[in-house]
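Usage

Read records sequentially. Each one opens with the input sequence:
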Amino acid sequence: MKEFAYFPGCSLEKMASSYHMSAIETTRKLDINLKELDDWNCCGATTYFYIDELLAYTMCARNLAIAEKTGLDIVAPCSACYKNMYFTAAHLKKDADLAEHINFALEEDNLEFKGTVGVKHLIEVFANDVGPEELKSKVTKPLEGVRVAPYYGCQIVRPQKEKEDVEQPQFFEEILSAIGATPVNFPLKMRCCGGSLIISSRTAALSMVRNLLQSAVDNQATVIATACPMCQVNLEVYQQQVNQEFGTNFSVPVLYFTQLVGLALGIPQKKLGIGKEFVDSMPALLQTSG
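and closes with the structure output:
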């Protein structure tokens, strides 16, 4: 059994609880143990790096140092958490002065960042540590007929890996194909959802969401799959506001990729958090009910 230090992040405790439920259920089914990081703290989200960069790095480094004590690589389901911790680890390895300052602060918790921990996004575990072939071999209820728009968002491929295609990645599509679904052409799959722009510029944020929803509809997707809590909220929760603002009539279900994988693995919908969404996903998933 493969094991990782699991960093759920703040979102998965409340608004993205379905992501947490489905992450735990699906990885368990794939013989992967996600061991929740003891005494983890918020990664600082995206905005905190613009307020106090040193403290933001320290918050991420604390989680990394805790993970190092376990000897396990750290896995984050949230794209922002993943990006923050990945870049923190990379920067501290290159900037000895920054690492010294941060380790001085970490001494209060008897911690030290040594740079030995790897940082992965949850979807990378499915794409690389499991792989499409192994995933396909464990599918019991293939999602035949379900047309899925794979929404990467703007942050998953920001930490560029060696030989990784950051312009037109395909690992999300490969996961969807492995579970029997049909990944549709989704030209805006790496376009930003607006993040927290809704707070400062409502019209601009809703316009970004509208464009993503329209692209999914134009390419005949029956559901959008995402791998980030913020993306899921923006694409699903604000659909009604988009309709009011632009006179549209969107009603597109938005599920986490782990929920779709879970259905294909035969996990009951309730255990995956399906049914909690604002936009009913059942019309798109009728053949998987039961």
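Summary fields computed downstream for this record:
- The chain has two domains: 2-122, 140-288.
- Strands lie at 2-6, 32-36, 74-76, 119-121, 147-151, 182-183, 223-226, 254-256.
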